[in-house]
Write a structure and sequence with these properties.
By secondary structure, the protein is an alpha/beta fold. It has helices spanning about 30-35, 60-75, 90-100, 125-130, 135-145, 150-160, 165-175, 205-215, 230-235, 235-250, and strands spanning about 1-5, 5-10, 15-20, 40-45, 80-85, 105-110, 195-200, 220-225. It has an eight-stranded mixed β-sheet, sandwiched between helices. Helix 2 crosses helix 3 (about 90-100). The two termini are about 25 Å apart.
Length: about 250
């Protein structure tokens, strides 16, 4: 693994995969998936603004996050890549792809994505999460988001990454970002889209994936599991890596 500022890299050859983490995570959240892919792909994970010690945006919006990610793709000097977004970053990845006039993104993979409409969250849960950062609440968030046991290392990481998030960025996502609809310009996306989702996801209900993701992106390939909760790259990184391989290289991979 190579670390440069807000970028983590695994692998030096093959197709570039740009990995965007979930709300509450960081670039390190991808390490188990990336380790399973690093022999065949260049895995490039970004710490988004306000996460993983990356400086927050001065104007926090879906659009400015997308601009930051697009600028990173330019700085990485990628002629093409597969963009992979988990949860919050599923919505961000869709926004980036819709703005991708240079067609750098040739494949889009969304993992348990926040819908491009409004992400459902009970008001009581939102109010609880607004009290972060707090280790006890972070532990509860991880427990509620998963159904498959995490290793001690994975659990510690999932808790610790929540505790370093910029406070304004944390509140913005819960109060504004998850409710910001981008569905009106999804037709601009040229790249093929695949979605990995769990039928037992406790954070984003499977019905929301079917209605507000697949329903708005009818040509999208949906791959489902019933073995994980919301944190698929932590709960079952080998399965996630296997599906990424099959999407990129074809079913024989």
């Amino acid at each position: 693994m190579d670390k440069t500022n807000h970028i983590l890299r695994w692998g030096t050859q093959g197709k570039p995969l740009v990995l965007l983490h979930y709300f509450g995570g960081s670039a390190s959240s991808w390490q188990w998936v990336a380790e399973a892919l690093q022999n065949d792909y260049q895995c490039i994970a970004l710490n988004l603004p306000g996460f993983g010690q990356t400086a927050p945006l001065t104007n926090i919006q879906i659009e400015t996050f997308a601009e930051w990610i697009a600028n990173m793709l330019t700085q990485l000097d990628l002629s093409s890549c597969t963009l992979i977004g988990h949860s919050m970053s599923g919505k961000l990845a869709l926004e980036v792809a819709a703005r991708d006039s240079a067609t750098i993104i040739d494949q889009l993979i969304l993992i348990a994505p926040s819908p491009p409409t409004r992400e459902p969250m009970p008001e009581e849960e939102k109010q609880r999460m607004l009290h972060h950062p707090d280790r006890k609440e972070a532990e509860k968030t991880v427990e509620q988001a998963t159904i498959k046991p995490l290793s001690n290392e994975q659990r510690a990481l999932a808790i610790d990454t929540q505790l370093v998030i910029d406070h304004a960025t944390w509140r913005w996502w819960l109060l504004e970002g998850m409710n910001h609809a981008i569905a009106d310009h999804l037709s601009l996306i040229k790249a093929p889209i695949s979605v990995l989702a769990s039928t037992k996801d406790p954070a984003i209900p499977y019905d929301a994936i079917l209605n507000d993701v697949i329903g708005l992106l009818p040509q999208t390939q949906l791959i489902s599991t019933d073995q994980t909760g919301h944190l698929l790259p932590l709960e079952d990184p080998d399965w996630v890596a296997q599906q990424i391989r099959r999407i990129i290289d074809g079913p024989a991979s």
